TrEMBL record:
It holds the Pfam family T2SSF. This is Type II secretion system F family protein. It is a multi-pass membrane protein. The chain crosses the membrane at residues 6-25, 99-118, 130-152, 279-299, 311-330. It is found in: Cell membrane. It comes from Ponticaulis profundi. Keywords: Cell membrane, Membrane, Transmembrane, Transmembrane helix. It comes from the Bacteria. Residues 171-296 form the Type II secretion system protein GspF domain.
């Protein structure tokens, strides 16, 4: 056996021994490292368990997690499933039966208006006398289902906007009352007496519910169902966390008031920045109608071809559909969710 063979065999033995040592030592080192990490983790957990601030922080995190998990289901439950809930959100005191009676009267009135005002030229050339009935039916359906619900939605939107504008001032009243030593119930009563409508009536219902035996979280939860706004939800969350974990209520509500005012300023800024796009969309949407009216005033015979001939009816139908699609697309482009 020559020297080269012995040298190669010795080097191979050394390499194999080093690899085995590294594998065995690596496992021991890894086990020791895991053991050290477990000891450090147990030490930290024991320290956190003995630390009241850490326990309170962990309790707050668990509460926020539960609130986030239930937020999706809560939003689904806030969608009004009947007309009574929509009337309550709009602040109207009429019963659902009265609303349906009003809707029926509106539908019959618009149907009669459409039947009477249907042009005789259209009814004589397009589907005959049945065209007048179809026009009246369209007006009646719009008056029974469309117009009253649209008015109700507008009233709800205006009322929610007023409550949003007044809510930060109501929080400031609660903050000043708590700092001066008044209990939370008394601060809510002050808002129910001193605040303007519609916030006053909502807080009046809250104080009446508390007087009848409801807890403050229950009364505020019903307030959120009547007024499904993010500001009201924030208010409920702050009071829920404060009631569960404790803390400075005046400081928490003061920070919430600042957040609500910042949201209002951001909302107004978005409206200002999008006002140009909204004005352009309104001009573009009104331009075809304005051109049609001007052409009818200057040359009525040229425009009446669209209303007297079947080809003109088809052109009007296609133009109306395209115009409605364009208005829908522009509205989606300029309607910001904030």
């Amino acid at each position: 056996m020559d020297t080269n063979t012995l040298l190669i065999a010795g080097l191979a033995f050394v390499v194999i021994a080093c690899i085995g040592f590294l594998l065995v030592g690596g496992d021991k080192n890894e086990a020791a490292s895991k053991r050290a990490k477990q000891i450090a983790a147990s030490t930290r957990s024991q320290g956190k368990a003995n630390d009241p601030m850490a326990a309170r922080r962990r309790q707050t995190q668990d509460l926020l997690k539960n609130l986030r998990e239930g937020e999706a289901e809560k939003k689904k439950s806030l969608v009004p499933k009947d007309i009574g809930a929509r009337l309550e959100q709009a602040g109207m005191t009429i019963s659902p039966s009265m609303f349906w009676i009003f809707s029926a009267l509106t539908g019959m009135g618009l149907a009669a208006f459409g039947f009477i005002m249907a042009p005789s030229s259209v009814t004589s050339t397009f589907l005959g006398e049945s065209a007048r009935i179809l026009i009246a039916a369209g007006f009646g359906i719009a008056g029974f289902l469309g117009l009253p619900r649209w008015i109700l939605g507008m009233m709800t939107k205006v009322r929610h906007q007023k409550i949003t504008n007044q809510f930060a001032d109501a929080l400031d009243i609660i903050v000043r009352g708590v700092k001066s030593g008044l209990p939370l119930n008394e601060c809510l009563r002050i808002i129910a007496v001193e605040s303007p409508e519609p916030l006053r009536s909502e807080f009046k219902q809250i104080t009446d519910g508390i007087s009848m035996g409801q807890s403050i979280p229950q009364a505020l939860q019903k307030f959120y169902y009547r007024v499904p706004l993010q500001e009201v939800n924030f208010f409920n969350i702050v009071l829920g966390i404060q009631a569960t974990t404790g803390g400075n209520l005046s400081e928490a509500l003061g920070n919430l008031s600042t957040v609500i005012r910042s949201r209002k300023m951001l909302r107004e800024k978005i409206k200002a920045l999008s006002s140009e796009a909204k004005a352009s969309a309104m001009i573009i949407g009104a331009l075809p109608i304005a051109v049609m009216v001007l052409v009818y005033i200057t040359t009525p015979d040229y425009m009446m071809e669209l209303f007297l001939k079947p080809t003109g009816h088809l052109i009007l139908l296609i133009g109306g559909l395209l115009m409605g699609l364009g208005i829908f697309i522009m509205r989606r482009m300029i309607n910001f969710d904030f």
